[in-house]
């Protein structure tokens, strides 16, 4: 029996396990459940307001694995409104919701909370309300792929806790408008933990207050941030200080690791600076200097939490948890390059619907090939990297599914095929100057914003003067890998596309006796003249196509 190989790959690399995620089986397009309907689209009770700020306050009870907190939501009304929807996992209790010191009534349906305001909030006004809640949040079955809280112990048997929730949604641990486009402009996190522990959040540490055996850590992010990127890590952490020089400005990097790993991390984490310089060269400036950049050691593999990238690969390029299955040519840690790259793909440029999440993951994996190409000054090493990923592509469902259905398209093909689709598009465009301008301009023009597949191809079309939407329809909206059927006679080479859309007119390069020849196949056989016994190769190291020799 053929075992299903690739399950969801959240932010990280590849994995072999089946999981049940709230957003569905990743081997077929998910069902539109009532909860996904409530969470996946911006219905009128969500589009009626824009969140500007979250003030998150949580007291953690480590023994009970529970939390007790309140979140102040500051928002702007987009129309007159009497009610709105906020989202919180249904297993968490809401103690009360207040507005102007009055308790509001609310109803709950799955993860949606419909709040009734006692008076109309007029269009274009700023208002805030506070949700008080408590409960035991979902534990992570297999973080970060099946997320939630990881309640773990460090090597000295001390508590060590972290959360990861991409796909599940931040609503599994705090109330928010849980849509990928609903980013606050800034957020404050106040985490209260036992005073012998340290709580690390995103952004910068503003204050620590200790009293009655508890410490209160206040963190602040002064930039827009995806809800699923907001995180908490609790453990016996110490800071590892480093600096990053850019344009004669010193930026401080304060990594957090378990106390016994301080020396190890202070040597190992310096590689993150090279990674940042690489991404800035090809994809524009790092967007969160005000919030810093840090790596935080966690008891799971890692996640791209904005300005607070989590790391659990074991501090080894060769022998880390994920290093062995991931070719890094001895030059970089796979988690550091992958999760740090998401500061560009995902955190800065966010998919406008999670069904377009190849913009996070496909571009991310592709950028790793570019990293090796740049590092070794060798196109061939980049191709080699991509070739090591190729057999992980399954071509079962389209990379892009339906919008508005809470479809987090974190399927394996989003990663590996997404990367190959970008590599193929580069080959089709066949002009590296334009190609790298496309990537950089797309990232810069959409920095701190949202984009979908159409937006990406609008940039491609603008820069090339050609319409490549047919390419997107084939590679992103269909699961089918184009097949080039071919055969040759003593005097001719015949070729045609199979398994493609009718409008698929992608050019393809062949090597004919060692000379590159570009053809534009169609669904009908075409041919060109060749000499007897010519050797013809389909350049499938540049194009994601399946060459099939017709032996008839
Ligand atoms: Zn990723």
Question: Please, could you describe this protein's structure?
Answer:
By secondary structure, this protein is of the alpha+beta class. The protein has 11 helices and 29 strands. Strands 5-4-8-2-1-11-14-13 form an 8-stranded mixed beta sheet. Strand 19 and strand 20 form a beta hairpin. The protein is globular. The structure holds zinc ion. The site of zinc ion has 6 residues, from helix 6.
Short key terms for the protein model shown above:
552 residues; alpha+beta; eight-stranded mixed β-sheet; binds zinc ion
Q: Tell me the Rg in angstroms.
A: 25 Å
What ligands are attached or bound here?
zinc ion
Question: Runs with pLDDT <50, length 5+?
Answer: 1-25
The count of strands amounts to 29
What is the helix tally? 11
Distance between the termini: 32 Å
Order of strands in the sheet with most strands: 5-4-8-2-1-11-14-13
Helical content class: 10-25%
Briefly, what is this?
By secondary structure, the chain is of the alpha+beta class. It has helices at 34-40, 44-47, 262-268, 271-283, 334-341, 358-375, 379-390, 412-429, 432-445, 453-464, 469-475; strands at residues 49-61, 66-77, 81-87, 93-99, 102-103, 105-109, 112-121, 126-135, 148-153, 159-164, 186-194, 198-200, 204-211, 214-221, 233-235, 237-246, 249-258, 295-297, 302-303, 309-311, 349-351, 449-451, 483-488, 492-498, 508-512, 515-519, 526-529, 536-538, 546-549.
